[in-house]
Write the structure tokens for this entry.
Amino acid sequence: DTEVTQTPKHLVMGMTNKKSLKCEQHMGHRAMYWYKQKAKKPPELMFVYSYEKLSINESVPSRFSPECPNSSLLNLHLHALQPEDSALYLCASSQGPAGPLLMLGNQPQHFGDGTRLSIL
Amino acid sequence: QQQVKQSPQSLIVQKGGISIINCAYENTAFDYFPWYQQFPGKGPALLIAIRPDVSEKKEGRFTISFNKSAKQFSLHIMDSQPGDSATYFCAARPRRETSGSRLTFGEGTQLTVNP
């Protein structure tokens, strides 16, 4: 079992629906990530939150809306998705920047098992 | 400059054999090189990682070899087992990122270990 928990494991939604993906970690990590992974491809970074603030948005369409309510939770709100958005959505966390120089160090990212999203 | 090139795309090895996966990079700002293992239906799991000031790191049957001058690193799986059958991703991250960790992944290698 991973220490990053994602719900739901599977989600099927129509193009007009609104849904949310949830991610939770209790490792005290201060950086959290959303990735999109297509079959037989590596994960693609979508968003990074550092200390609950959005620090990286990899030019993701606005139909994906991230939210970090607190240091343990990360949500991804979905609205008006397209069939090409069908993929495995992965959440990850890492210790995040630390110390006065905000140096990351070699802090690994821990991934959840993802939400398999299908858009009809 | 942000790319990490991984080969081979797929690899078939007999049980007990050595699996070797190679990665190459261009960006000299990379200073952390993890390998991830991903089983079907699961998220990537960190397997082993290395920094460029070390030429080799071994953890059990898994070894990373790192060649800084050639900007190449490789994963060796000794005594490969059918349970090692998975997709393996190499990755790299630049130093001194202050706002989260942007990993650059290789394209992945599908490893099959035959019994």
